[in-house]
Amino acid sequence: MGEDSLGKRTSIAVRDASGLVFPLGSMEGKPIPPWVSEGREVYRRGLILALDLAVKRVYPDWKLWVEHSISLGYRCRIEGMEPGSEKEVCVKLEEELNRISGEALPIQHRKLSSGEALGLVGEHSLLPRWHIGKEPYWANVLEDSWAFAMGPTVPDTSWLTSWELRPSRGSFLLRFPGSKTWPEIVPWVANPSLSKELDLEEKHISRMKVHTVDLLNRRIREDGGRQAVMMSHFYQNRRIVQIVSRLGDEFPAKRIVMIAGPSCSGKTTFTRMLATYLRAEGFGTRMISVDNYFRNRSETPKNKDGSYDFECLGALNTQLFGEHVKKLIEGETVKLPVFNFHNGEREDNVNPMTLGSNEFLLVEGIHGLNDSLTPGVDVASKFKIYISALTTLNIDRLTRMSTSDGRLLRRIVRDSTRRGYSATETIMGWPSVRRGERKNIFPFQEQADMMFNSALPYELPVLKPYLVPLLEDVEEGSDAFRDADRLLRLLDCVEPINEAVVPRLSILREFINGLLLDWSE
Fold first, then answer.
1. Is 76 part of a structural domain of the chain?
2. Is there a single domain that holds both residue 400 and residue 489?
3. Which of 117, 124, 286, 308 has the fewest C-beta atoms under 10 angstroms from its C-beta?
4. Running DSSP on this structure, what letter comes out for residue 479?
5. Residue 84, burial from CB neighbour count under 10 angstroms (0-12, 13-18, 19+)
6. 213 and 185 in one domain?
7. pLDDT tier for residue 47 given thresholds of 50, 70 and 90
8. CA neighbor of 471 nearest in space, from 489, 484, 490
9. Could you give phi then psi for residue 439, rounded to 5 degrees?
10. What is the pTM of this model?
C-alpha cells in the first residue's frame, strides 16, 4: 500500500478527510476516526464482508464463520477447508482481498421493513425471521454477503487497506489495526491459554447446537430453553470441579488462590462457588478483601482529569497486603484493616485472622494475577485463576457477539437492580471501565494457572425482559443512544427465556438476583 493510499485512508472518511461520518442516529454529522472504538468497528464490519466475498469467489462450496476475538483479530473457520491447507488458503484469500479492495465495491447499510426482512430467503432469512418488528432491522450487504448490522460500515471496499491473514490449526486469524498504531498491525502475540479456553467453549456451544442466535431461538421454541440452560449449568459445574481437583492436587504448596477478571465476569459468585466446592472436598477457606487495603483518599493517585484512580495498583497499600498474606500462610495471626468508603480512611489492626493448616486463602480482585500486588510472597505459593465472560455466541455466521457487549449487558441490569443507575449512566461509564481492564487485567491473563469462562449461551434471552425497558429509556441524542439502539435491535431478534428456569446456583443469578449462595464465615 503506497503512501498516497495510506494518507487518504487513515481517517476512513465518508464525507470528509477528518474521520468517518456516521449516517445513523445521534452520531450523524460527527467525524469519527478509526482509532476510537466505533471507528474500528466500522472498518472491521466492512473487512469481514470482504473476506466472506473472497471465500465465495475462491471457494464457492465453502462457508466462512467468524468466531471469537483474540490478539487484535478474529478467529475464522471455514466449513469445507481441508486440514493442513491453512497456509495455501490464506495466500489465495489475501490475493482475492486485494482484488476486492481494488474494485471499490459498494457496501450497503440497509434498513429493512418488517415485511422486507421476513421476505428474505435462504441463509439471509435465518435471523430476520425472528425479528418482531419493534426495532428496525439493519443489514450490511456486499453483493451476496450479508451480516446483521451492529452499526454502519465503510461505504466501499476501497477503504479496506490493512489486514493480515494468519494460519492457525484448522482455521486462520483475520487481524486488523488497533487504535494506538493505526493503520499499522501490531506484531502477533500468542495467547495459548486463552486460545485453548476459547477452543473448549466453541466445541461446547457447538455440541449444544446453539452457536447462533437462530439456533438458540429454535431450542427456546422447543422447550422454553430448558435443555440449553441445564447443559450450560452442568458444563460450568464440571469446569469448577476440574479447578477444585487441581487445587487439591497442589495443596499445600499452593494455598493462596488469586482470582481476577474483568468487570461483570462473575468473580463474586465464582469465588463463593469455589469456596463451597472446596469445603465439600474437606478443605477450609478464608477470604481476604483487597478493598480494605486501599490507601487513604488523600494518598490515592489521580487521573489526568483530576479524578481519583481507584483501579490502579498504586491505589492499594500493596506492601501491607503482601506482608499480611505472607504472615497468614506462615501460620501467624494478623489483624486485617477495614476501609471506610464514606470518609475514605483505612483503619488498621481491626479484624484478627489466622489461616488453618487445612485452609485455602481466597483473594479476589482486579489485580489478582499481578505479582506486584503481593510483594514478598513466594509466587510458587499462589494458584491464579482468570475468570471472564468469553462469549462464543454468534449473532449470525459473520457477526459475533462481543465479550465486551456481553459484560456490558450484565452490568446494565446489575447497575439498575442493585445500584439504581440508569442504562445511560452505565453505558457512558463503560469506556473508562474498559480502559482500566486493558491496563490492569488483560496483560496478566496468560499468567493464570487455570481459566474459567462464566459466559452462558442463554444470557441474552434471560436478560432481555430486564434490558429492553432500560435501553428504551436512553434518550435519542444522548451519547449513549448509539449503543442502546444497536443492542435493542439485537434483542428484537432474540426469543426470551423465563428466568424461572435458571438454576439458583447459576452465575447469571449474580446479575438478576435469586442466587442461593451467600458468603458467610
1. yes
2. yes
3. 308
4. T
5. exposed
6. no
7. very high
8. 484
9. -90, -40
10. 0.90
